[in-house]
Design goal:
Blueprint lengths: L7 H35 L16 H7 L2 H32 L6 H13 L2 H12 L5 H7 L16 H26 L3 H9 L4 H12 L1 H16 L3 H6 L11 H11 L3 H30 L1
Helix pairs in contact: 1-13, 2-13, 3-7, 3-10, 4-7, 5-7, 7-10, 8-9, 10-13, 12-13
């Protein structure tokens, strides 16, 4: 008499993937979500050089928003994030449209545009620091070539230093954004475009009214990823400017590290980390909700 009970081999095949993934899942639960929960807890305690368990409620958050350095970091993040997201999106879209024209050498150009993303932000920051340093970089080279009046000292200028971080970040990430838009362009049905061309639509109207609206998912994905990178930017700033001159390029991530590990104010550093987490969550949640709703 046949039964519906699976045999040992079938049950083993069902359990093997779970057994293989369980160590990774346990590590993620402990070292990612566990430490996130611990950081949230520390933000409500009187932690200084070492973790403390003396509960002080929202005092750290009150102190944080009263610090001038935190307001400087938030203002710098606003400038950096707006320019970074806008310029990366514009350059990525233009490069994608350029490559979508089935030009010769596309197979060679794509890796060139994508290559910067393969580098770490530490390498990018160090390279751009050398390039922008007036003593050894672009300005020095122009002087050696005879252009004595050339000046480009943004990296030493308090008012302009934040824009050097934007330049380096855009250089590294715009190729990745290009790849996202190019994938979106290649996914558009050519029959729609041919029908519009037959109806007499110009290339400008073709892109403005058909192509770009159809790229909405790519725009949304690019915005979420770039926003996340902007909020957590740390290594690029440290390698490029060290947060200076003064605090001209201080961002929330560098503020958090500074107050947690060098100023012995772990509670305030944890509070700043929680605010960064909430900012990223506020960006991610609508995106995830829209994706899940669309799948349903």
């Amino acid at each position: 008499m046949a039964t519906d009970t699976p045999d040992f081999k079938t049950r083993l095949q069902d359990w093997i993937p779970k057994l293989v993934l369980s160590p990774s899942l346990a590590a993620v639960l402990v070292f990612v979500y566990g430490f996130i929960a611990f950081t949230v807890y520390l933000s409500f305690t009187d932690s200084r050089m070492l973790p403390s368990y003396d509960w002080i409620g929202l005092e750290n958050y009150s102190k944080l928003w009263g610090l001038r350095h935190w307001h400087t970091a938030i203002a710098n993040l606003g400038i950096f994030a707006f320019l970074y997201i806008t310029i990366c999106t514009a350059i990525g879209l233009m490069l994608a449209i350029f490559l979508d024209q089935k030009i010769r050498g596309e197979g060679m150009l794509r890796p060139i545009y994508l290559y910067p993303m393969a580098l770490s932000f530490i390498v990018t920051g160090t390279a751009w620091k050398w390039f922008l340093d007036p003593g050894i970089g672009l300005e020095h080279t122009m002087h050696l070539w005879g252009w004595e009046s050339f000046e480009f000292g943004w990296i030493k200028d308090r008012d302009m230093a934040i824009y050097t971080v934007v330049i380096a970040a855009v250089w590294q990430t715009s190729g990745f954004v290009m790849a996202m838009f190019l994938a979106g362009l290649r996914g558009i049905d050519n029959e729609i475009l041919k029908a519009a061309q037959i109806d007499g639509a110009s290339n400008w109207n073709l892109y403005r009214r058909i192509v770009i609206p159809l790229l909405r998912p790519a725009f949304l994905s690019a915005f979420v990823i770039l926003s996340h990178l902007a909020v957590k930017s740390y290594d690029l700033v440290i390698a490029l400017t060290g947060g200076g001159p003064g605090r001209a390029t201080e961002l929330p991530a560098t503020f958090m590290y500074s107050y947690t590990f060098t100023r012995n104010s772990m509670g305030i550093g944890a509070a700043s980390a929680v605010i960064m987490l909430m900012t990223i969550a506020a960006i991610m949640m609508p995106y995830l909700y829209a994706e899940l709703r669309e799948k349903r």
